[in-house]
Amino acid sequence: MWGRNVYDSISKFLQFQLTVNIVAVIVAFTGACITQDSPLKAVQMLWVNLIMDTFASLALATEPPTEALLLRKPYGRNKPLISRTMMKNILGHAVYQLTLIFTLLFVGEKLTHTQSSAHEQLG
Questions:
Q1: How many CA atoms lie within 13 A of 78 on its CB side?
Q2: How many angstroms separate the Cα of 82 from the Cα of each of 7, 12, 37, 103?
Q3: What pLDDT, in 10s, does the model give residues 66-113?
Q4: How far apart are CA 36 and CA 98, in angstroms?
Q5: For this chain's UniProt record, which GO biological process terms are given (predicted)?
Q6: For residues 62 and 12, is the Cβ–Cβ distance under 8 A?
Q7: Is the separation of the CB atoms in 24 and 45 below 8 Å?
């Protein structure tokens, strides 16, 4: 029961971390290429990593096993840790988060009727 719980927790941890890291890398790279300045500064990236690692580790360590884990068949030795369903979830959530972040980055000023500090420095 504990072994299956650890396996499930590691799978959830990987799914969460891969999603966050894929989004962070794409936002930093694409934002830097398009705007000539990274939307996430080094200190912000460190905070993102610190917060995401902390919450993911807490979730990994605090979920107790249930009796329902024993009702399913055990996973085989050759089963990949990241399943096809997990990969779909990772990519789906990453696309959703990227859409939201890029919308805020590129048209956020128009949506919120504000100006960023970058425009104030230029003017």
A1: 0
A2: 11, 10, 34, 29
A3: 888 888 888 888 888 888 999 999 999 999 999 998 898 888 778 877
A4: 18
A5: regulation of cytosolic calcium ion concentration
A6: no
A7: yes
